[in-house]
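Task: fold both queries, return tokens.
Query 1:
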Amino acid sequence: MIVEMENFFVFNGTVPVNWFSKIQEDSILSNFYRISPVFYSIAGLCVLIFNTSLKKHDEYFPWPIFGILLIIQGLFSYMGDVENWGEKSYWGTIDVYLASTLTFIGGPLLILRSLMGYSKYPKSFTFIWSCCVLFALYSKLMAKDSITQNNIEDYLLWHSLWHCLPVYATILITLLSFGLLK
């Protein structure tokens, strides 16, 4: 089942190597794409900074480990998606598996924990976070479709929006920590 889900979201063909020059280009879209992997690391730092506040809402969730893994994910994502584009590398392989695992844990699993009463998030947090996760997964699907259609502009946009899930998380965690979500 996990492999089927991975195939649903992840392109398993040969990526267009000639896109590397477009990725390295000095354009708004290319710069956004190259910067977007850092969003994971920023979210990881946010999780570590607001760990105490997050524990108040979900005391059994492994926040410090999750934060550290997000920081590491930023490195693997950048190396896999930017520096080693089009090459078979451990960076890309680890990026796919770590991102999938973190998305599952931080997305559906966290949402289910809230809906089932294992955590104490405000309903607004759970609703907004659910919408963010769904949009990110939609973005990931659109990025995969863009690659199969050989459309680099759309790919850069949709894959970068997929990488914005940690930005949404950072905003929500900050609002939650300052008591601005009821």
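Query 1 returned. Query 2:
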Amino acid sequence: MNSVMVSYDIPESVKCANPSGKFRRWGIRVNASVWIFPPGRVPSEDIADLRSKGAVVHSVEFAEQAQEKILELAKRELRRHSRAVMKHVEERCAKLKADMVPAEMYDLGTKVEIYHKWRGLLSQARRELLAAEQCALGFAVSRDVAEAFDGLKNVLSAEFALATEWRQRQKSKPLMEVLA
């Protein structure tokens, strides 16, 4: 059994959710709607669901001699994706933290909204990391990409700690001070 490339097209007239979120934990994205899945990890039920709803789906199994190149592509894509998620998290968190600096000027609702955006961003990034780790396991390249994942884990841990600390400080203030 070899890696499989799957491409799909969801016509505008078809009411079907894009499967990219689900596919991320099983394979690597080559471009917008082309994915490569490791042997035995093709999400057949999701592909059948796409087809049943009217999407056009093609799949091609790679030759045995292509497997080494597929593994290199998987490692490169997993590293690239981890760096992209880490950069996004760092940039967005910096903006949210900057919004919190003048937080004393905000009402409680705005402060809570900023906090929830921060936590939501971090939760989404954590889901991306877990999906990437599952994908790396499927391609059996976890050791090769561990360093990229560790960097993202460190950023997430630090940001979760800061968000939690900020929230605790807000909770410990008297209500009148928070509302001021």
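Both queries returned. Flag for query 2: The chain has a mean pLDDT of 86.
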